[in-house]
Amino acid sequence: MSARDKPWIFRTYAGHSSAVASNALYRGNLAKGQTGLSVAFDLPTQTGYDSDDPLAKGEVGKVGVPIGHLGDMRALFDRIPLDKMNTSMTINAPAAWLLALYVAVADEQGAARASLTGTTQNDIIKEYLARGTYIFPPKPSLRLTTDTIAFTCAEMPKWNPVNLCSYHLQEAGADAVEEAAFALAAAIAVLDAVRAGGVIPESEFPKAVGRISFFVNSGVKFITEICKLRAMAQIWDEIAEKRYGVADPKLRLFRYGVQVNSLGLTEQQPENNVYRILFGMLGVTLSKNARARAVQLPAWNEALGLPRPWDQQWSLRLQQIGAYETDMLEYGDIFDGSTVIEEKVASLAEQIRGEIARIEEAGGAASQAALEYMKERLVASNAARLEAIETAEEIRVGVNAYTETEVSPLTAGNGNFIVADEHAERDQIERLKAWRAARDGKQVAAALASLERAAKDGANVMPASIGCAKAGVTTGEWSAHLRKVFGEYRAPTGVAADGPVRNDERVGALREEVDAASKKLGRRLTFLVAKPGLDGHSNGAEQIAIRARDAGMAVIYDGIRFSPDEIVAAAKAGKPHVIGLSILSGSHVPLAKDVVARLKAAGLGDIKIVAGGIIPPEDEVALKSAGIAAVFSPKDYDLNQIMREIVGLAGKA
After folding, report:
1. Are 89 and 149 contacting, i.e. CB atoms less than 8 angstroms apart?
2. Of 26, 167, 244, 637, which is the active-site residue?
3. Phi and psi dihedrals of 357, rounded to 5?
4. From CA 421, how far away is CA 22, in angstroms rounded?
5. Among this protein's residues, is 535 annotated catalytic?
6. Cα dihedral sign, 96-101-103-104
7. How far apart are CA 355 and CA 184, in angstroms?
8. Which residues of the chain have pLDDT under 50?
9. 221 labelled catalytic
10. Residue 522 CA from chain centroid, whole number
11. Buried b / exposed e across 529-539, counting CB within 10 Å, b at 16+?
């Protein structure tokens, strides 16, 4: 028995509606014992658009807080001293910009930059593979990442400038080996870019390696999770020492935070999610030698909607009970010497090294060939996971087994999650317009010109970005000027039109139904899978597209982030019988209504439209009254049944 260890940092991933509302939520959570902040930004902010941009319609304040300028960032951290707070910001493509705003607020508060502690996620490779909030192509994106690393190493030595995020890889279907290998390969790509660019003195490079952190996922299979993390720690130590020559063991430590798995949370019997969250937390806290530095837990009702403060408090209390009431922090590593653990760790480590080598051979994680390889692996792994649930090869309590249940008092009636403020978008746009009207236009123009020069000349963009922040530049303006220099990018989908087709008995029967329907229609049943708006969570859309392809449909799927007008254009060109809209950002009602209206205006009102996402029952009613023919949510886990409904709708087209 050793002296009691300090607990990890307690975080709650939060932010919604507005900076003022989110600030009140943060201060409330801190008062309840949360020890660090984890900021969720809305999709326009994450993808570099202002709230009044046409592409932001319906998305403002839905999955996080909208931050359009310095005034918003100032309000977000009002009465929160940044020199005493550890802040994690989940932001990637515009990470340099949000960090610049954060530094500008710290400067206003009089907080020394060297005192600032926290993390910017800043893992663009993961965005291409799993989450979709990318903007620029890989090379300039890595350049922005190296700029933040160089800046923080010089001026913010306690800040983690990049947080390689395997969390979303597991959410996209990665198994333990893929999650670990792809994240470690991404870290190698980042550090190789830093070294090749010469942006940090060679003598300071080990410190840059030491500031690299990771953000992992942890599911209910907590023994596997423990072994995965011990394997990652072992391999990261090897990479730091052998590849980068880091001699100091402290700078080779595998430092990670964690978000416990949200993918495994169920809409059915959601009260069971409390136990799933507990087992996920054990995977990152039980093993002292592979314990998380920071933990954030989802709430039990996240498969239903946006958690309330009470729901977040319940998850925070689980962390506090684990840290203060149990004795897990009083002992050394209880898994050291276990032959079961050692064998599993060795097996995982060998496979992880093999995957990293394959990615290296393809040109490194940022290369197009490696991105396509990793994306295809994720899509295939997710398909296997979903099929195992469909066939009950893997039991999901309350979903495909033990479905009989008492009525839960937690979900009886309405009000068991937050409904986004319907006026949040309008109010945010009004504040944005007032901000633009009050600023000095000449200062803004000069700051943006300085940013554009830095981007073109290869100078570090951070000083110019901080200058933009202080001049009153907006998120959309910062991104637009860099878009002019760097261009934009569309990542691989992992869904090939001519990919391998499954040929089992269940899909074979479905294919016969599609063939029969196609014969009646006079041509191949055609299904357009579309993701309107800025939502980049494409896992569901990918699996629907693959199953439709396996069933014999002609499938049109071109990835994420299409405007309603672009969807109408795709419908004109592809002549689908059915359009499937996939929206997981909470903006399903306004976006779906917009698509329906534009299709009717284009004379395509006969096309049947279905929608999928985390859609509450009351929104399902609104969607159907607006002309959506069918609505699917996470409870509809049988993809073949969804396909049969699509076949039926096509027959009515």
Report:
1. no
2. 167
3. -65, -40
4. 12
5. yes
6. positive
7. 10
8. none
9. no
10. 41
11. bbbbbbbbbbb
Annotation says 537 is catalytic = yes
**CA atoms lying within 13 Å on the CB side of residue 627:** 20
The catalytic position among 69, 228, 537, 608 is 537
Would you call 248 a catalytic residue per the annotation?
A: no
Q: For residue 38, what pLDDT is reported?
A: 95
Residue 496, by phi and psi: left (phi above 0), alpha (psi -120 to 50) or beta? beta
Quick one: pLDDT at residue 498? Answer: 64
**CB count, 10 Å around CB of 173?**
24
Beta bridge partners of residue 13, listed in sequence order = 38
Task: Please identify which residue in the block is written with the tokens 């633009």.
Answer: 436
Cβ neighbors of 600 (< 8 A, separation 6 or more) are 627
Residue 441, both tokens: 């236009």
Long-range contacts of 511-519 (CB under 8 A, 24+ apart): 511/550, 511/551, 511/552, 513/551, 513/644, 513/647, 514/551, 514/552, 514/553, 514/643, 514/647, 515/552, 517/647, 517/650, 517/651, 518/552
Positive or negative torsion for Cα 335, 337, 342, 343: negative
Cβ atoms of 141 and 189 closer than 8 Å: no
Q: Please give the Cα distance from 324 to 421 (Å, whole number).
A: 36
Query: How far from the centroid of its chain's Cα atoms is residue 324's Cα?
Result: 30
d(CA 348, CA 249): 23
Q: Name every residue whose Cβ is closer than 8 Å to that of residue 312 and which is 6 or more positions away in sequence.
A: 12, 14, 29, 299
> What is the pLDDT, as a whole number, of residue 2?
58
Q: Which two tokens stand for residue 299?
A: 């709430």
431-461: b (≥16 Cβ within 10 Å) or e:
bbeebbeebeeeebeebbebbbebbeeeebb
Distance CA 386, CA 392 (A): 10
CB-based burial label for 43 (10 Å; 0-12, 13-18, 19+) = buried
Residue 58 DSSP one-character state: T
Contact between residue 416 and residue 304 where contact means Cβ atoms under 8 Å apart: yes
449 vs 455: CA distance, rounded Å: 10
Is 168 catalytic? The answer is yes
**434, two tokens:** 């007032």
Look up residue 425 and give its amino acid: E
Nearest to 303 by CA among 311, 295, 293: 311
The partner residues of 117 in beta bridges, in order of sequence, read 86
- Which amino acid makes up residue 13? Y
3-state secondary structure of 401: strand
Other Cβ atoms less than 10 A from the Cβ of 129: the count is: 29
Residue type, 529: V
83 is catalytic: no
Residue 393 is given by DSSP the state: S
Residues 6+ apart with CB under 8 A from 418: 16, 305, 306, 307, 308
Match 């003022």 to its residue by tokens. 20
Q: Which of 50, 175, 311, 535 is catalytic?
A: 535
> What is the DSSP track for 480-518?
HHHHHHH-------S--TT------HHHHHHHHHHHHHH
Q: What is the pLDDT of residue 497?
A: 64
Which two tokens mark 414? Answer: 């309405």
Element (H, E) at 451: helix 441-457
Q: Specify the pLDDT at position 652.
A: 79
CB 76 within 8 A of CB 19: yes
Name the residue among 52, 43, 13, 30 with its Cα closest to residue 437.
52
Q: In the structure encoding, which two tokens stand for residue 234, read together?
A: 């072992």
Query: Cα–Cα distance between 132 and 129 in angstroms, integer?
Result: 7
Distance CA 611, CA 468 (A): 40
Catalytic residue among 16, 62, 126, 531: 531
